[in-house]
């Protein structure tokens, strides 16, 4: 067969780039995808502005459904991933919650909004500069229920146990024993293990129900 199509040439036509998502479009997309379903979590996504947690050079792409670098080898997680984690965590008002891997503070702010003024949110970050970045980002929100700490989150936070919920944004080979020990019976851990997101539900002192969702990439735990 003869190829009759004309040779490709530059017609000088500019193909318009797709416009970046707005804050509202990002939330609508997460609802449309059925990633966000719980009203309290949807409202938190509306109240917390991701733009407040990205680097200055990424302000125009703050609402893209992508992880973005925040320096020091860390990323602000992809909104879809954050939404899946928060839906699985099922955080309730007034709970005591431990977060590992504060990073930008975006997930921290969402937790503080979801669990409300009477909750206690503790968040541990390994890199002091990132903790300072998170503090600066979170200042705009005036949360009274937050304690930010620097340290090794693998150890949990023994002095404030037991926790209703534990959530980690950094992955490891297995869920650290300290987190399981520091979880209330009836409590939930959401943490990345390898390429899976793992949900552990403590049904009794020694028994945990486990659910695995495959297909994630997270910054590793140091
Ligand atoms: N939820 C954060 C994700 C940040 S990436 C956000 O959306 O911004 C994961 C974070 O875990 C990084 O900031 C990294 O420094 C931190 N981290 C890695 N190992 C850690 C450890 N052992 N203890 C506490 N934080 C840790």
Outline the structure in words.
There is one protein chain. The chain has helices spanning 23-32, 39-47, 79-89, 106-115, 128-138, 177-181, and strands spanning 68-71, 74-76, 96-100, 120-125, 146-150, 163-168, 170-171, 183-193, 196-202, 208-214, 219-220. The protein is α/β, with parallel strands linked by helices. The chain has one domain (23-214): 3-Layer(aba) Sandwich (Rossmann fold), CATH 3.40.50.150. The strands form three sheets. Strands 5-4-3-6-8-9-10 form a seven-stranded mixed sheet. A two-stranded antiparallel ribbon has the order 1-2. The radius of gyration is 20 Å and the shape is globular. The model is unreliable at 1-7 (pLDDT under 50). It binds S-adenosyl-L-homocysteine (SAH). Residues 74-77, 100-101, 103-104, 106-107, 124-127, 130, 152-154, 169-170, 219, 221-222 line the site of S-adenosyl-L-homocysteine (SAH).
Brief rundown of the structure:
With 222 residues, the chain is α/β, with parallel strands linked by helices.
Summed up, the helix count is: 6
Instruction: Determine the strand fraction and express it as a percent band.
Output: 25-35%
- Averaged pLDDT, please? 94
State the separation between the terminal residues, measured CA to CA.
Answer: 60 Å
Strand order of the largest sheet: 5-4-3-6-8-9-10
* Largest sheet: number of strands, sense, barrel closure: 7 strands, mixed
Extract low-pLDDT stretches: 1-7
Broad CATH class: Alpha Beta
Note the run of SSEs as H and E: HHEEHEHEHEEEHEEEE
Bound molecules: S-adenosyl-L-homocysteine
What helical percentage do the residues reach? 25-40%
| Helix/strand/pairing category | alpha/beta
- Corresponding CATH architecture: 3-Layer(aba) Sandwich
| Number of separate structural domains | 1
Outline = globular
| Number of separate strands | 11
